[in-house]
Amino acid sequence: MVPDQWDESLAELFGAAFVEVTGADAIVVGHDMRPSSPGLSGAFARGAARRGADVTLIGLCSTDQLYFASGTFGLPGAMFTASHNPAQYNGIKLCRAGAAPVGRDTGLAEIRALTEKWLETDAPEAAAAPGTLTERDTLTDYAAHLKTLVDLTSIRPLKVVVDAGNGMGGHTVPTVFRGLPLDLVPMYFELDGTFPNHEANPLDPANLVDLQQRVREEGADLGLAFDGDADRCFVVDEKGDPVSPSAITALVAARELARNGGTGTVIHNLITSWSVPEVVRENGGTPVRTRVGHSFIKEEMASTGAIFGGEHSAHYYFRDFWNADTGMLAALHVLAALGGQDGPLSALVSSYDRYAGSGEINSTVADQPGRTAAVREAFASRDGVTTDDLDGLTVTGADWWFNLRPSNTEPLLRLNVEARDEPTMARLRDEVLALVRTP
Hints:
One of its GO terms (biological process) is carbohydrate metabolic process. It contains 14 helices and 22 strands. By secondary structure, it is an alpha/beta fold. The chain folds into four domains: 130 residues, Alpha-D-Glucose-1,6-Bisphosphate, subunit A, domain 3 (Alpha-D-Glucose-1,6-Bisphosphate, Chain A, domain 3, 3-Layer(aba) Sandwich), CATH 3.40.120; 101 residues, Alpha-D-Glucose-1,6-Bisphosphate, subunit A, domain 3 (Alpha-D-Glucose-1,6-Bisphosphate, Chain A, domain 3, 3-Layer(aba) Sandwich), CATH 3.40.120; 106 residues, Alpha-D-Glucose-1,6-Bisphosphate, Chain A, domain 3; 81 residues, Alpha-D-phosphohexomutase, C-terminal domain (TATA-Binding Protein). Helix 1 crosses helix 2, helix 1 crosses helix 4 and helix 5 crosses helix 6.
């Protein structure tokens, strides 16, 4: 939280430590629309310049716009945002040159340790030759680059409602959609980091209600909802029904495989639908299953040379976007797929949405290992059932699977269940929850 847990003086030290750990002589910095973001990002930039790095300030931007700048300029980057979290929060998403991730094991721990050291002692000395601060607008180039990655030249006219949630989608969508045959109905495009209308977290169904209603009222072809920093995009169909991010992953995977000659690797995390690897194989690709999380997906993208990756949380990663996640490019793929045929979106995605899923269900549990062990024991002896521990506990039967994962930050167990039909899914969900929630 700002300023209770961190402020501009701490951000300045982070900027210096980022330069020190990465060895960068130049970086790029952007920020979202939160009230604290301009001050924090400016302080970070001053700290980086004081250590000798030239800083390109791109100002207001979405997180994937910062990744675009990092990739295009070949520079490490820092994006100031707390994504979908409440207004009093803020944070930093860091990357190396080419939008390569900076995670706990790839520099973040060193940056934190160095910052803490400087807090306890004296501030770092200034470099003999301090760096410069230069402002640069990247929005137009970002939009143009996205349009080189998906063919939208022959789509039919579409009416699309976009809920930006007062986040950075209100900044990027007008420029990205300019020139396309779209009747755009904007919702909450005013940049306001206090989020006066609803939280900018479309993963919570409550935050999709306004969009769903507006799509129905407008008779629109689809609706799009972006989170606060606009790196995630959620889709609702012409009926106002949410489209599963797994279905979007499968749809985009099929399109990216076709774009790459019907071959390539596609990454999916272990709680995406069975539909995803099935569609990948049907379209000539090779699916690779990985742990949940941004850094794991990016690592697998890089190590396998994957062309695309998707997560249940509506993060979509593209090889041709520096392996980084961009909800906007996924949205353009949906527009291209829908606009390239005459049917409604609900019919288009039905072939990619083949199973009944529970969605993620959180349970507050004091003894996470104990409850997980109880679930494992209950299913281990059943015929035809297999388990694995790639990320939490995954149990798989002939026509169902579930995953039970502990939260890294809260006393929660997260359950995802999928089955070939709704009754089987509901029965399995209730059985596992009863075991998890037993005192």
